[in-house]
Specification:
GO terms for molecular function: methyltransferase activity. Helix content is 33%, strand content 25%. It is of the alpha/beta class. The protein has a single domain (8-196), classed as Rossmann fold (3-Layer(aba) Sandwich), CATH 3.40.50.150. Strands 3-2-1-4-5-7-6 form a seven-stranded mixed beta sheet. α4 (76-90) links the parallel β2 (69-73) and β3 (96-99). The longest helix has 15 residues, at 76-90. The chain is globular.
C-alpha cells in the first residue's frame, strides 16, 4: 500500500527522526534547471516554499541571494528541521517559517514565486478535490505576474480542467531520474510552470 502522504500524522511520525531528505532530485540540480526563470526576478522577490519538509531548498535559494523566503509546512516538526538546516549552513536564520496548510493559505500574504518539490504529489494522495483546493489557494496568494513551479513525478498532474481554468500550465523541463543500469528505461520527473490566468480572481 502507498504511504499516507496526504495525512499530517504520517509526516509527524516521519519528521520525528528524519532531519534531511530531498524528493526526486537535489535542490542544487532543481534550482540549476530553474536558473533562467529565477534570474528574471529581483533578489527581494517574495518566495513561497511549499511543503518545505526537511529539504534544504531554502538554503540554496538563500545562497543565490533570495532571502525573502517563507517556508511553509503543516507539520511543525518540519519547520524545526528547516530552521536547523539553515542555522547549520549559515550560522543564523533569515528566512521565514510558518505552519500552514497549502490548501487553505491566507490570501493576505502574496508572493511572486511559489515553488514546491513534490508537495503537489503528496497532496494528490488525498484526491482531486485536494489538488484543486491547493491550486485555488496558491492562486489567491500569487501576484498576477507571479509563477508557481512544481516538480512532480506525474505527466498529468495538472490536467484537471479546474486547475487549468486558474493557471496556464506548461512543462518547463523534464528531469531524468538516475539509472542503476545503463540499460534501464528513461524515467523523468516533470518540472511544471504555472502562470495565473488573467482575469481570474
Amino acid at each position: 500500500m502507498p504511504a499516507d502522504y496526504e495525512k499530517q500524522s504520517y509526516w509527524h511520525d516521519r519528521f520525528a527522526s528524519e532531519t534531511a531528505f530531498e524528493w526526486y532530485t537535489s535542490s542544487a540540480a532543481f534550482l540549476n534547471a530553474l536558473g533562467p526563470l529565477l534570474d528574471k526576478f529581483p533578489r527581494d522577490a517574495g518566495i513561497l516554499h511549499l511543503g518545505s519538509g526537511t529539504s534544504d531548498l531554502h538554503n540554496h535559494l538563500r545562497e543565490r541571494g533570495f532571502v525573502n523566503v517563507t517556508n511553509i509546512d503543516y507539520e511543525p516538526l518540519a519547520l524545526q528541521r528547516g530552521q536547523q538546516l539553515e542555522r547549520n549552513r549559515f550560522g543564523d536564520v533569515r528566512t521565514r517559517y510558518l505552519v500552514a496548510d497549502a490548501t487553505q493559505l491566507d490570501p493576505k500574504d502574496t508572493y511572486q514565486i511559489a515553488i514546491d518539490k513534490g508537495m503537489a504529489d503528496a497532496i494528490a494522495c488525498g484526491g482531486t478535490e485536494a489538488v484543486v483546493a491547493t491550486a485555488e489557494s496558491i492562486r489567491r496568494c500569487l501576484d498576477p505576474d507571479g509563477v508557481w513551479v512544481c516538480l512532480s513525478y506525474s505527466a498529468s498532474r495538472f490536467g484537471l480542467k479546474a486547475v487549468q481554468s486558474l493557471f496556464d500550465v506548461q512543462v518547463l523541463s523534464r528531469v531524468p531520474t538516475p539509472k542503476s543500469k545503463p540499460t534501464n528505461p528513461d524515467i523523468f520527473h516533470f518540472c511544471y510552470l504555472l502562470r495565473p490566468r488573467q482575469g481570474v480572481a
